[in-house]
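INTERNAL AUDIT FORM
Audit reference: QA-55
Scope: verify that the stored structure record matches its stored sequence.
Auditor: D.O.
Record contents follow.
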Amino acid sequence: MTSRLKLGALPTFDELPSFHDFKGCAWDVWGKDDELGTINLLTPEVVAQAAQEEIRLGRTVSLNWCEQYGSRVKAEPYNTTNQANPLPLEGKQPVFERKIPSITTFAKYGPTIPIRDDVIHINTQSGSQWDGLKHYGLTEHNVFYNNTPAETLSEGEMELHDPSEIDYSKVKLGIHNWANHGICGRGVFLDVVRYYTANGEALPYDPWTSHPITVAELEDIAKKQGVAFRQGDILLLRVGFIQKYYASTNEAKADLRGGSEKETFAGIEQSEDMKRFLWNNHFAAIASDQPSMECWPAPMGTQLHQVSLATSIIAALNSRDLADDSRPLWDAYWSVPHNNLLHTIFISIQTGELFDLEALSALCQETGRYTFFFTSWPLNILGGAASPPNAAAYF
């Protein structure tokens, strides 16, 4: 495999080894000590080519959803009895149990002196986000990317004042690796919404329901837009969550906080064909405007996500007060194999969610271009599990 990489070739999905019962393990492609995954594909040559070819007009687009808007999707209050893992109270469960941002601006020296500071407390996945390599592993084996045992990584508050204090074995796989490398290269935009609605038709699916986007659809959209993929592309998908969010009433937005039964979102299908599509095109990263990159929850009976027991446990959790005596139910929930297509990071492709792609869609339509120069500089947090993307497109 090493000799193939030196020649610029990568194994196909079907050439990748298996890990236990899981097909398509790319953990050794860049070596056992790798902490970048497919971000390795963003070489200086790839970045330079993209910049030279794509930056022509001087037009720029932010791809970051406003941090505060997640408050409609990620709701309070929390049961903080267990400070290590506070649980949402019944009837107020935020999507995927994430606390909303708390952003406070204050007069530093009082109201008569014009100086202001901010204090910000966020879950790094409460809005636009990259899921890092230590966000979601293989639960039944308790390992992260490159077979890294979960118990070897840090958790809890990490207060570091100086590089001499860092135990790098504890911050392994942290988001700081991407922050120092950067996620820059050619962005490729597939506008699923416009593909279906360009001629005035209604979108044939609801982005707030479990609708799968297939490989055939993505390939047809790329063909219609005149896009040919190449190694190291950063793929962005507009599926429709944020468009519907902007068009919905406050009551409909608040209904997203209704618990696990409301956590239904369109996204890419869970299938071996989708894994082949993503890996064999050798995307450096993939992101969408949905709260979940993949169709959520996974369809019953798929080989990639076993949801029957998990669903029954969450239903039980939602039917009772979430105090300390509910902890066994949560332990049972996390004991279920969660073999999500992408959250396992099994084929090491980096994923982003809740990117705001509305302005990008408009500019792509205006220019007739669906490729551009893309940049993202995540927060430089040692050992971080995720980060807002700080992402932009340049035309």
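Auditor finding: record pair retrieved intact. DSSP finds eleven helices and 17 strands in the chain.
Action required: none
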